[in-house]
């Protein structure tokens, strides 16, 4: 039962990080087209909070995986705060999203072995 819960949380983290990465890559391209879309920083914050929830909900993490996940979510949160406070869109958010995907895939691989 515990492994099923951890797999579900890993899949939630992978999905959230993947959607966040797609959002961060595709959305700036969509703002070029005059559709009246504007970037909402709170969507980025929502993705970061979902990822943070997934990280802290997973029990029995390998120390290396935990380090990857926490450093990745820290990069994302720093980038989102820079964006909210100073209107500076840092590329740290891309690195953080890729790190989250890698960390969750490593943790998911541990459960499949």
Question: Topology of this protein?
Answer:
Blueprint: H1 2-30, H2 41-57, H3 63-86, H4 92-112
What characteristics describe this protein?
113 residues, 81% helix, elongated, transmembrane, membrane
Quick synopsis:
One of its GO terms (molecular function) is mercury ion transmembrane transporter activity. With 113 residues, the protein is mainly α.
> What is the count of β-strands?
0
Radius of gyration: 15 Å
**Class computed from helices, strands and strand pairing:** mainly alpha
Biggest β-sheet: count, sense, barrel? none
Task: Please tell me what the overall shape is.
Answer: elongated
Bin the helical content: over 70%
Structure annotation, total helices: 4
One letter per element, helices H and strands E, the order comes to HHHH
Number of domains: 1
- Beta-strand portion reads under 5%
Distance between the termini: 16 Å
Mean pLDDT over all positions? 76
Low-confidence stretches: none
Organism: Moheibacter sediminis
Keywords: Membrane, Transmembrane, Transmembrane helix
Pfam families: MerC
Protein name: MerC mercury resistance protein
Would you mind describing this structure in some detail?
The chain has one domain. The longest helix has 29 residues, at 2-30. The two termini are 16 Å apart. With 113 residues, it is mainly alpha-helical. The chain has helices at residues 2-30, 41-57, 63-86, 92-112. It is elongated, with a radius of gyration of 15 Å. The model has no long low-confidence stretch (mean pLDDT 76).
